């Protein structure tokens, strides 16, 4: 598709968002640590997923595009637009075509999240992990700090790894989520899955996710505690 046709499609899609989506889309948030709830959205829009700040939808008349709508009061759209500007064109990331008001228009990434790969018993090859590792290096090379890179924010497509969510890449505090994922992948997952592959029940995945959240909070608190002075 040439640039003028793409620009025309994006303009038409933006009109659809303003005319039919935003007025009927209902997003609620009860817990800042949990994904927002999409209570309602109009047909023929399709819900792709929801994160802690925004929901992602697509329209069947505009294949290849995804619309990310931020919930009221949730920050991050301006930062995400800047992240995509810095990333430019990279095979492991999406592309931002439009950002204004409460939503962005992005290139739709096809594939299965790593979290769903665990649930469905789909093998996550080493190549996908290497792809995402290279994507992390690239992001750092353009001045970003990859943040919040976990199993629900990375994707597998035809054996290659993709990064779905970059909204927190401007944060300056260190984040070990990707390093912890790699450690678990090579220490626990791959030695078993390369020989015997099976779906992991959702309740186990959710228990691991909740346990990891608790671990991270305790780790942050421990770092904030003042050093103990030894008693004489």
* Helix count, DSSP H or I runs of 4 or more residues: 6
Q: Give the rounded overall mean pLDDT.
A: 91
The first-to-last residue Cα distance is 75 Å
Shape: globular
Q: Round the Cα radius of gyration to an integer and report it.
A: 19 Å
Biggest sheet, spatial arrangement of strands: 3-4-5-7-6
What does this structure look like?
With 232 residues, the protein is of the alpha+beta class. It folds into two domains: 9-107, 2-Layer Sandwich (Phosphorylase Kinase, domain 1), CATH 3.30.200; 112-210, Transferase(Phosphotransferase), domain 1 (Orthogonal Bundle), CATH 1.10.510. It contains six helices and ten strands; from the N terminus they run H-E-E-E-E-E-H-E-E-E-H-H-E-E-H-H. It has helices spanning 3-21, 77-87, 114-120, 126-141, 177-193, 202-224; strands at residues 26-28, 37-40, 46-50, 54-58, 65-70, 96-100, 103-107, 112-113, 154-157, 160-163. The strands form three sheets. It has a five-stranded antiparallel β-sheet, sandwiched between helices. A three-stranded antiparallel β-sheet has the order 8-9-10. The radius of gyration is 19 Å and the shape is globular. This is Serine/threonine protein kinase.
Quick recap:
The chain is of the alpha+beta class and 232 residues long. The protein contains six helices and ten strands.
Task: Map the helices and strands.
Blueprint: H1 3-21, E1 26-28, E2 37-40, E3 46-50, E4 54-58, E5 65-70, H2 77-87, E6 96-100, E7 103-107, E8 112-113, H3 114-120, H4 126-141, E9 154-157, E10 160-163, H5 177-193, H6 202-224
């Amino acid at each position: 598709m040439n640039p003028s046709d793409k620009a025309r499609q994006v303009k038409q899609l933006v009109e659809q968002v303003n005319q039919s989506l935003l007025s009927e889309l209902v997003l609620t948030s009860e817990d800042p640590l949990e994904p927002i709830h999409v209570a309602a959205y109009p047909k023929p829009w399709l819900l792709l997923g929801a994160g802690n700040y925004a929901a992602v939808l697509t329209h069947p008349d505009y294949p290849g595009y995804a619309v990310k709508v931020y919930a009221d009061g949730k920050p991050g759209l301006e930062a995400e637009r800047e992240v995509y500007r810095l990333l430019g064109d990279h095979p492991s990331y999406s592309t931002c075509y439009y950002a204004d008001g409460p939503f962005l228009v992005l290139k739709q990434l096809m594939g299965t999240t790593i979290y769903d790969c665990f649930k469905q018993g789909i093998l996550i090859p080493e190549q996908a992990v290497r792809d995402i590792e290279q994507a992390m290096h690239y992001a750092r090379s353009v001045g970003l700090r990859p943040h919040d890179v976990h199993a629900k924010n990375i994707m597998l497509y035809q054996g290659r790894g993709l990064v779905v969510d970059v909204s927190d890449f401007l944060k300056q505090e260190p984040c070990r989520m990707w390093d912890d994922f790699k450690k678990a992948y090579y220490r626990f997952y791959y030695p078993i899955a390369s020989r015997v592959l099976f779906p992991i029940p959702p309740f186990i995945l959710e228990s691991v996710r909740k346990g990891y959240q608790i671990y991270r909070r305790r780790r942050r608190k421990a770092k904030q505690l003042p050093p103990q002075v030894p008693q004489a």
